[in-house]
């Protein structure tokens, strides 16, 4: 007997997981490329530049990829991930400025 409906939202397809991982990898690459070039940047400016690059489909000079929809929440999530991994850091006197 099955009394409860199947919870489809708990089962994530492998293709969806793979697509999310690819998106996160692209965002992390964009963030690091932008900060490598700028050395330090206000977090708001960085988010807007990453979103703009996603819409244009540009990973960097001469490197193109398919553009995709990117939201500030996605970028901020990747920023937190990179901060926790130690790839980025905040300035102590100005915590809203990130450095590579």
UniProtKB/TrEMBL annotation:
Domain named Cullin neddylation is located at 19-96
Query: What is the top-level taxon of the source organism?
Result: Eukaryota
Q: What is this protein called?
A: CUL9 protein
Q: Which organism is it from?
A: Dryoscopus gambensis
Instruction: State the organism's lineage.
Output: Eukaryota, Metazoa, Chordata, Craniata, Vertebrata
**Gene that encodes it:** Cul9_4
């Amino acid at each position: 007997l099955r009394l409860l409906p199947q919870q489809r939202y708990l089962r994530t397809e492998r293709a969806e997981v793979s697509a999310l991982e690819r998106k996160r990898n692209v965002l992390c690459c964009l963030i690091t490329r932008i900060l490598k070039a700028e050395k330090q940047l206000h977090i708001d400016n960085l988010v807007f530049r990453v979103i703009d690059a996603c819409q244009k489909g540009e990973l960097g000079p001469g490197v193109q990829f398919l553009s995709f929809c990117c939201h500030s929440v996605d970028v901020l999530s990747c920023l937190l991930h990179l901060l926790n991994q130690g790839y980025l850091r905040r300035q102590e006197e100005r915590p809203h400025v990130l450095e590579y």
